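Treating backbone geometry as a discrete language has practical consequences that deserve illustration. No coordinates are needed to read the tokens, only the vocabulary itself. For completeness, the protein is quoted in full, as a sequence line and a line of structure tokens:
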Amino acid sequence: MYIEITDETGKLDSSIIEQTEKVLAFAADYIHLSQSKEMAVIFVDNVRSHELNLQYRDTDRPTDVISLEYKPDEDEIFFDEDMEIPEGLMDEMDPFIGELFISTDKAEEQATDFGHSIEREYGWLTVHGFLHINGYDHYPVGGPEEAEMFRLQEEILTAYGLTR
């Protein structure tokens, strides 16, 4: 999987960037995601996180991670009306799956609040956002989707070695 990582804050330690790339590759293998997939991770501060949260989620506050899942628009790709589109062809034609925006400010706050390492917090935010852009969700709260997503998230983090 190709991962483009950008640190808009300019203050992130290179070990966190390296960990992010490794944990994403691990998570992709764990859920059997095609190696041809591509995604972006952008580390931002709370000001930018607030702007993005307002723009995409209509929520007027910063947040820890924003996941923007990308789904190709099949209507923009033209095939003969009688042509059957082979399963998986759309995935191969457009490998980009989405973007994660991770707030470095929130990561630092939450690592302190939850009493675990900053590495664990960045790993948690990365896997959480990654699962969102791959179709997992935790709404409605208390529902089976939430239980499945959080179970898988913890399973991936534990297998990777980022335990509480």
